[in-house]
Design brief:
The protein folds into two domains: about 5-265, Spore Coat Polysaccharide Biosynthesis Protein SpsA, Chain A, CATH 3.90.550.10; about 290-380, 3 Solenoid (UDP N-Acetylglucosamine Acyltransferase, domain 1). Helix content is about 25%, strand content about 25%. It has helices at about 25-30, 70-80, 95-105, 120-125, 145-160, 200, 215-220, 235-245, 265-285, and strands at about 5, 40-45, 60-65, 65, 85-90, 110, 135-140, 165-170, 180, 185-190, 205-215, 250-255, 290, 300, 305, 310, 315-320, 325, 330, 335, 340, 345, 350-355, 355, 360-365, 365-370, 375, 380. The chain has an eight-stranded mixed β-sheet, with helices on both faces. The chain has a six-stranded parallel β-sheet with strand order 13-16-19-22-25-28, covered by helices on one side. Strand 9 and strand 10 form a beta hairpin. The longest helix has 21 residues, at about 265-285. The termini are far apart.
């Protein structure tokens, strides 16, 4: 019997993976009978981002001070460190040079000169893929976690599936492709919303555009994709339907957190992603011993570091590479950017930029420290 969550000829289980998903690569290797499977990741980042109405490439828009694609690459870097993932490729298009500069040495960039859909993006990168498996995901999904990607890879390897799909269930699935199943729960394919019937549009189980494919099978299917749809594009989801139609085993991992797999396609989506990420960051620091009187008014950037027993009062904004020591009291009404604060620093109604404050410094109220300012221990300003 296939593992829970795997759909093959038997049409087994429908929800979740039902497997113990361990972070270590040796556990993943054990699930394949001791054989170490090679895995590359392909990040699709060539979208025009029309609804963003911006000259900036969509994946470079920031969430909590960090470009969206940097969050995705960070999750993949965790898998590389664990030995689960060997290589990362990024397909770029609109503003590709800017994206390539941001990516740097974290991945290899592939330029998609013509944007003809997700299937075409994979076709563009195909000559560079030499691994046995490929993890495909989008560069505009900043909330995806390494834990979920790890579980997806583990399920794929333990199930022997041709493709493993990351899905979720949404109250409002508008804009997402729907996962089609038969009465027994077997996956029949994925239908894009632009091609869905009214009945299919009522399906709440959606595709998140994140998959793990057996590369030998996917590469054999890619030449058979057709752009005979209303968008005139090659859909990667058609490859899933072809594999299902050939009786290949498919698996699904259904995440219980729809926010994690949210794609950012508009400024409204960007604001939603920012809010979710801010909650994650704030919770992390509270768990590390930082007190927040009103977390909803505290903004902490992705690269900020905080010491224990620090108190953040309302309306505190911490940005850039700011480092805050232990036992500080910040706020209300404080903005700090790219600065270093020692232990026991107190700041109220102040703006601090590019400055260094030693232990016991007091700043404010109504003070502004310009870049290059250094306040020695126990000094007062404002």
């Amino acid at each position: 019997m296939p593992a829970p969550g795997v759909t093959g000829s038997s049409g087994a289980g429908r929800r979740g993976c039902g497997l113990e998903c361990h972070p270590r690569s040796d556990k993943i290797m054990a699930s394949t009978g001791g054989k170490r499977m090679s895995l590359s990741a392909l990040v699709l980042a060539a979208g025009e981002g029309t609804r963003m109405k911006s000259r900036l490439p969509k994946v470079l828009h920031r969430v909590c001070g960090r470009p969206m694609i940097a969050w995705v690459l960070g999750a993949l870097e965790d898998l590389k460190k664990e030995g689960v993932l060997q290589r990362v490729l990024v397909v770029v298009g609109n503003g590709g040079e800017e994206v390539e500069k941001l990516v740097g040495g974290a991945a290899e960039c592939v330029f998609q000169e013509e944007r003809k859909g997700t299937g075409h993006a994979v076709m563009t990168a195909a000559p560079l893929i030499r691994e046995e498996e490929v993890l495909v995901l989008t560069g505009d999904s900043p909330l995806i976690t390494s834990g979920t990607l790890r579980r997806l890879c583990l399920l794929h390897r333990s199930s022997g599936a041709a493709v493993t799909i990351l899905g979720t269930v949404m109250d409002d699935p508008t804009g997402y492709g729907r996962i089609r199943r038969d009465d027994a729960g077997k996956v029949l394919g994925i239908v894009e919303e632009c091609q869905a019937t009214e009945e299919e549009k009522r399906i709440r189980e959606v595709n998140t555009s994140t998959y793990v494919f057996d590369w030998s099978l996917l590469s054999g299917v890619l030449p058979r994709l057709k752009a005979d749809n209303v968008k005139g594009e090659y859909f990667l989801t058609d490859a899933v339907s072809i594999l299902a139609g050939e009786g290949k085993r498919l698996a699904t991992l259904i995440t219980e957190d729809p926010d994690e797999v949210m794609g950012v396609n508009s400024r409204y989506d960007l604001a939603r992603a920012e809010a979710v990420m801010r909650q994650r960051i704030n919770r992390r620091w509270m768990e590390e011993g930082v007190t927040m009187e009103d977390p909803s008014t505290v903004y902490i950037g992705a690269e900020v570091t905080l010491g224990r027993d620090t108190l953040l009062r309302p309306m505190v904004i911490l940005e850039g590479k700011t480092v805050v020591g232990e036992g500080c009291v910040l706020g209300p009404g404080v903005r700090i950017e790219d600065s270093r604060l020692g232990n026991g620093v107190v700041a109220e109604q102040a703006v601090i930029r590019g400055s260094e404050l030693e232990d016991g410094v007091t700043v404010g109220p109504y003070a502004s420290l310009r870049p290059g300012t250094v306040l020695r221990a126990a000094a007062k300003a404002g």
